Amino acid sequence: MTSSPDIKPQKYNWLSRQFHWLIAAMIIAMFALAWTMEPLPLSKEKLNFYSWHKWLGIIILGLVSARLIWRLFTKAPSSQHPNVPGFMNIFAHLGHVALYLLLFIIPILGWLRSSTAGYQVVLFETIPLPNLMAKDQELSKLFSELHEITAFALLFLLAGHIGAVILHHVKFKDPVLLKMQPATIHRLLLALTLIGGAVFYANYTYLNPPPKMEKAAEIQQENKKVSDSINDTKNHKTNDKTSVKSNEQASKWSIVKAESKLEFTATQKGAATTGSFEKFSLKKLTFDAANPDQAEVEIEIEVSSLSVGNLMVEQTLVTSSWFDASDFPKASFRAKNFKPLKENEGKNKYNLEGELTIKNITKPLTVPLSITEQPEKADKPASLVAIGEATISRLAYEIGQGEWASTEAINDEVLLKIHITAVNQN
Q1: Are residues 243 and 202 part of one domain?
Q2: Domain span at residue 61?
Q3: CATH code assigned at 69
Q4: pLDDT, one tens digit for every residue, the chain (426 residues)
Q5: 399 and 255 housed in the same domain
Q6: Does 258 lie in the same domain as 192?
């Protein structure tokens, strides 16, 4: 290669350089968090790491957007150098476009993953961001896989980006790095982020790893106990069915499962997280709007049927620190006091005063209910729809013990939502 005179490259403007190195440091922190948090068992630390990871992703998305807007109003230095083949400039341009696209796509995929998993993103535990899509477990798995694939693609492109800079300097004598020359503060920021990320990862992976195997074994043992409890229930299903049947015959009502839901919403690190119980039965229901004082209801819930769209969370919630589904497989709500509200407070509205039992702990619970009745028709039996919600204290039922007894990561208040459609089988 023939030598060429030294060419002093133009620099990017000051603000563009700040964007570049700040985003670079945040990307390092993002990967350090991702590699560290993923294999950890569920804990307050893991919830913190996930929150920080999401916050960084949203901040990077904002910074990249701001940088691109700034780029529209400023001129980038020329990428031409006499020693560099023209096709390499084309590849460099395509590489930059791909980097920008990935820095947009990856945070948005993470946001979509969180939204469809039912975990709202709350920036700094203060600013709730809108869910991009409704909760959908299958879509959440898809977005999770795409998020991971695109993250590895970003790593590949970053390695190529750094390699190309070195190649330009060593082979083509093109001091391209000087265009984005880092100031002392940038070098310090990158050094601290690299060292901090490495120490952070090493601490949780090698130096002070959490008891993964013990925790996994504990969860496995708890799940086995739950499974044994469910199997034991199945072995006695004949008697149970007889009991349920006699109650339903007495009440003449049965739940329409496809149109009924029992949901709970907890607040985790400022984010509302909703789950549900998939299996519940109507043990007793007698209701007549003309005689509400004679109404009665009893609902039984299978604790192990809880669903939050995350297997690790579900496996943890059935353990003894939470619902203890092996020793207390059933929860129940019983009420015999339907108090009609005044006409000006709403038509067909009642205060249902009863008792909620979880883990053999019984507490009074009042549920404001809206009850809509539909009379029997030629092709349809009589039906009623009951909708209501109430707030309970999870700690009052010893749900969340040990490190989870603190409300730092998960609030004490849990919102219960009831939507039950029942038909008269008479």
Answers
A1: no
A2: 14-207
A3: 1.20.950
A4: 444 445 556 777 889 889 989 999 999 999 999 999 988 888 888 888 999 999 999 999 999 999 999 988 887 776 665 556 666 667 667 878 899 999 999 999 999 998 888 888 888 888 889 989 988 888 989 999 999 999 999 999 998 878 777 776 666 565 676 777 888 999 899 999 999 999 998 988 888 776 653 444 454 455 555 455 444 544 444 333 333 333 444 457 788 888 899 999 998 888 888 889 999 888 888 877 777 778 888 899 999 998 887 778 888 888 888 999 889 999 999 988 888 887 656 678 888 889 999 999 999 999 998 888 777 776 778 788 889 999 999 999 999 988 888 888 889 999 999 998 888 776
A5: yes
A6: no
Question: Are residues 31 and 169 both part of a single domain?
Answer: yes
Whether 280 and 191 map to the same domain: the answer is no
Instruction: Using a cut of 0.90, tell me whether the model's pTM lies above it.
Output: no
Domain assignment present for 1: no
Domain shared by 264 and 309, yes or no: yes
Within-domain flag for 5? no
| 172 plus 268 within the same structural domain | no
Number of domains forming the structure of the chain: 2
SS (H, E, C) the chain: CCCCCCCCCCCCCHHHHHHHHHHHHHHHHHHHHHHHHCCCCCCHHHHHHHHHHHHHHHHHHHHHHHHHHHHHCCCCCCCCCCCCCHHHHHHHHHHHHHHHHHHHHHHHHHHHHHHHHCECCEECCCEECCCCCCCCHHHHHHHHHHHHHHHHHHHHHHHHHHHHHHHHHHCCCCCHHHHHCCCHHHHHHHHHHHHHHHHHHHHHHHHCCCCHHHHHHHHHHHHHHHHHHHHHHHHCHHHHHHHHHHHHHHHCEEECHHHCEEEEEEEECCEEEEEEECCEEEEEEECCCCCHHHCEEEEEEEHHHEECCCHHHHHHHCCCCCCCCCCCCEEEEEEEEEEECCHHHCCCEEEEEEEEEECCEEEEEEEEEEEEEECCCCCCCCEEEEEEEEEEECHHHCCCCHHHHCCCCEEEEEEEEEEEEEEECC
